[in-house]
């Protein structure tokens, strides 16, 4: 075990109620719905019991019956975190909203409202939709090209942040004696006229006393990394488990952050990881093997095809992964990471679909609580991560195991908080003090 670090590890949970593993919902005692309010509320309360920084909710604007069960039916994220903010007190709440099929004014207003309701605990996960099927639900045949989607996203985020800033500190007065409700000098229009958006402003909601909502981003392509480095507070990153690659990606993004005039520590990098936990290593392997035994070529190949951006249904499963180009129009970070790993590890398509179906291309680790803690500690203290997005294979059991068995081990090592430092997400992440009215 490495010596304890003065840094504190940050933890989020990737919430999808029917489990992050494609077959997780089939496990004994597992929840089976991603559209159940009691299930979602209980999941957020487990995260809060574990002193987690963030309860992270992904989203999609299309439904595919062959997709991961948790993706087939799901709540709209901003509505969900509004409700969750009432049944939790501390855990941060991250909601995904796409810049491809939204308007900046609506997004700015929604998240400003959520920031007030939650007492400063919300974050917007900025995504650019990557599936053409979503375009069909919005009167379009195809998505914009990948790089154009990120050009739109950059301006979109700037407009949203600009709208939040149309109310300056001290703008809200409400002085009953004088009759002054707002200081009009401290509320200004945005007057944004850009390539993609024209927004007058100001926003029609006062600034939250806890500061603006935070920004999460998960793009792994070069345009995605640039957006993260310039605007994000938290980055949800993809890793394959290769330490050298993870270190290069971590250092590369921190360097990009510095090039944009920001302190590298201003951005918290959290790789996704699925821990399979057992009382012994053999028991953990047995649990993973059982989950994997429920996979079928049909559902797994659908996931692999979606992740790498190529239809592989006609290829031989036990042949080496074919030499396919990286898909630059969909999820290019998943495509490049998975294909590079397949070549490096000399994988067959069956190997690749087993991996992808387990955690959709994210890192899977298994073992005892101590072994899981050892691995996370090594990555954290080795400068490969600022913490992790935990992706339980199924809920609630796999998440309970992490909170009740791994978290105490991390706390004993001095790596993880024993209580929240304050009530806001900024407090959890150690981000600058909030602005006041």
How would you portray this structure in words?
By secondary structure, this protein is an alpha/beta fold. The chain has a single domain, classed as TIM Barrel (Alpha-Beta Barrel). Helices cover about 40% and strands about 15% of the residues. It contains 15 helices and 13 strands. Strands 1-2-3-4-9-10-11-13 form an 8-stranded parallel beta barrel, surrounded by 7 helices. Strands 5-6 form a two-stranded antiparallel ribbon. Strand 7 and strand 8 (about 200) form a beta hairpin. Helix 1 (about 35-50) crosses helix 3, helix 3 packs parallel to helix 4 and helix 6 (about 145-165) packs parallel to helix 7 (about 220-230). The protein is globular and about 75 Å long. The relative contact order is 0.17. Mean pLDDT is about 90; it is low at about 1-5.
From the N-terminal CA to the C-terminal CA, the straight-line distance is: 46 Å
Q: Quick one: CATH superfamily?
A: Luciferase-like domain
List the strand order in the largest sheet.
1-2-3-4-9-10-11-13
Order of helices and strands: EHEHHEHEHHEEEEEHEHEHHHHEHEHH
Main traits of this protein?
13 strands, globular, alpha/beta, eight-stranded parallel beta barrel, TIM Barrel
Short description:
With 437 residues, the chain is an alpha/beta fold. Helix content is 40%, strand content 14%.
């Amino acid at each position: 075990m490495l010596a304890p670090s003065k840094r504190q590890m940050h933890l989020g949970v990737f919430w999808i109620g029917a489990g992050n593993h494609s077959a997780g919902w089939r496990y004994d005692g597992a929840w089976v719905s991603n559209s159940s309010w009691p299930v979602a509320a209980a999941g957020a309360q487990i995260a809060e019991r574990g002193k987690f920084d963030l309860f992270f909710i992904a989203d999609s604007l299309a439904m595919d019956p062959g997709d991961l069960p948790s993706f087939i039916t799901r709540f709209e994220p901003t509505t969900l975190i509004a409700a969750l903010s009432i049944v939790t007190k501390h855990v941060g709440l991250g909601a995904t909203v796409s810049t491809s099929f939204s308007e900046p004014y609506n997004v700015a207003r929604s998240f400003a409202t959520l920031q007030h309701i939650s007492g400063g605990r919300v974050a917007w996960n900025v995504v650019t939709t990557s599936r053409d099927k979503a375009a069909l639900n919005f009167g379009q045949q195809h998505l914009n090209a990948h790089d154009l989607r990120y050009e739109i996203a950059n301006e979109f985020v700037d407009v949203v942040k600009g709208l939040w800033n149309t109310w300056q500190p001290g703008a809200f007065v409400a002085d009953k004696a004088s009759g002054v409700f707002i200081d009009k000098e401290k509320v200004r229009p945005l007057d944004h006229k850009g390539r993609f958006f024209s927004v007058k402003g100001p926003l029609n909601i006062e600034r939250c006393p806890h500061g603006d909502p935070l920004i999460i981003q998960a793009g792994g392509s070069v345009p995605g990394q640039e957006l993260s480095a310039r605007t994000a507070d938290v980055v949800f990153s993809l890793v394959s488990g290769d330490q050298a690659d993870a270190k290069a990606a971590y250092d590369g993004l921190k360097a990009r952050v510095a090039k944009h005039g920001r302190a590298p520590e201003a951005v918290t990098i959290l790789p996704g990881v699925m821990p399979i936990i057992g009382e012994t290593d053999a028991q953990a392997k047995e649990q993973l093997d059982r989950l994997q035994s429920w996979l079928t070529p049909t559902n797994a190949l659908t996931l692999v095809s979606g992740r790498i951006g190529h239809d592989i249904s006609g290829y031989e499963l036990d042949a080496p992964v074919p030499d396919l180009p990286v898909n630059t129009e969909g999820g290019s970070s998943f495509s490049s990471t998975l294909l590079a790993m397949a070549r490096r590890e000399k994988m067959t398509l069956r190997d690749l679909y087993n991996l992808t179906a387990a955690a959709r291309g994210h890192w899977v680790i298994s073992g005892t609580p101590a072994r899981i803690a050892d691995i996370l500690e090594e990555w954290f203290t080795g400068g490969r991560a600022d913490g992790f997005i935990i992706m339980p294979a199924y809920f609630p059991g796999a998440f309970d195991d992490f909170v009740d068995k791994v978290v105490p081990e991390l706390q004993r090592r001095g790596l993880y908080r024993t209580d929240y430092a304050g009530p806001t997400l900024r407090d959890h992440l150690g981000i600058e003090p909030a602005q006041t009215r």
